[in-house]
Design goal:
Layout lengths: L1 H10 L20 E4 L5 E8 L2 E6 L5 E5 L5 E5 L9 E4 L2 E5 L5 E6 L5 E6 L7 E7 L2 E6 L4 E5 L8 E4 L1 E2 L9 E6 L6 E5 L4 E5 L5 E4 L10 E7 L2 E6 L4 E7 L6 E7 L11 E3 L2 E5 L13 E6 L2
């Protein structure tokens, strides 16, 4: 039976890339994209041609997947420490370094690390980042601080301590980060409490966002499209979809998207009218043979 299904898949023009998962062709983008066994993905970035870039929590290597075919390859070898949140801008890939306490800037043409910013030598979990006109702002889930990186490869990183309504709690704190729709402030989700904050990028002063009683617990990667905010609630296996005020101070959950293929997705990126989420599988004990993939859904 399995052989017959495989034969039918081949006759229909399906592609079977690394990992053994089949993907549709005929003009339709694949619904699932396999990653190398044992990869342990977290961050994802799109915006360069038809590629998605994914970072490994194991060794920091960057995998580049073609979203048209599902096939991929190692784009940049890792430094031996994690690669978490990823963002693309002006021919560069910015990478949050997790427990490595750093952020890296990679050339999108060559995969070469052009700059490594050491953000802290203490306990840290450099988690996610957003690119703005004034720099790249990076969250640290272990400490009440953001880091501002200069755009490009020159200049030094600076710290922006969180204050105001921000209260540091046990567990994973600041995680996903985007700009507000008016681009004047930042939006930061606090995973352990389910709260969302606006943050002044100059001072770090945080204001609690009115979510009308909703919680974004387990909030991880975020994506803003116009006034629509997508928040991945990883262990709940859902994407919360919110309508956000221009200044970010009020937000309303309008729906939650789920999919049978979600297995603790961590972050989200957009391409071709679809959302792409790497299954981090945080609740599955990792081994070198554990399979991982990226799932795409329509918003």
């Amino acid at each position: 039976m399995r052989s017959r299904l495989m034969l039918l898949a081949l006759m229909a023009g399906l592609v079977v890339p690394v990992g053994g998962a089949a993907h549709a062709s005929g003009g339709r983008l694949p619904d699932r994209i396999p990653l190398p066994n044992g990869f342990q993905p977290e961050g994802i970035a799109t915006g360069h041609k038809t590629y998605a870039y994914l970072g490994s929590r194991v060794d920091g290597r960057i995998w580049r997947a073609d979203l048209r075919t599902g096939k991929g390859t190692v784009f940049s070898p890792g430094p031996g420490t994690p690669s978490l949140g990823l963002k693309i801008g002006n021919g560069l890939l910015y990478v949050a370094g997790g427990t490595g306490g750093d952020a890296r800037v990679i050339d999108l043409r060559t995969g070469k690390i052009l700059r490594r910013h050491v953000l802290t030598t203490g306990t840290a979990f450099i988690n996610d980042l957003v690119l703005t006109r004034s720099g790249a702002f990076v969250t640290d889930s272990a400490n009440p601080v953001l880091y501002r990186l200069p755009l490009g490869v020159h200049g030094k990183a600076t710290s922006v301590p969180l204050s105001g309504d921000w209260v540091q709690e046990e567990g994973t704190n600041a995680n996903g980060i985007v700009q507000t729709p008016d681009r004047r402030s930042l939006l930061v989700v606090q995973s352990n409490t389910g709260r969302l904050f606006t943050v002044d990028p100059r001072t770090g002063h945080a204001r609690l966002v009115d979510l009308d009683g909703e919680s974004l617990q387990f909030g991880d990667g975020m994506l803003l499209v116009g006034s629509t905010l997508y928040v991945v609630q990883n262990r709940d296996n859902v994407i919360a979809v919110l309508k956000v005020a221009k200044d970010g101070r009020k937000a309303r959950v309008v729906e939650r998207i789920t999919d049978p293929d979600f297995d603790v997705p961590a972050t989200v990126a957009r391409f071709g009218g679809r959302l792409y989420l790497p299954n981090a599988r945080f609740t599955t004990p990792p081994t070198p043979e554990t399979p991982y993939d990226v799932v795409s859904v329509k918003p």
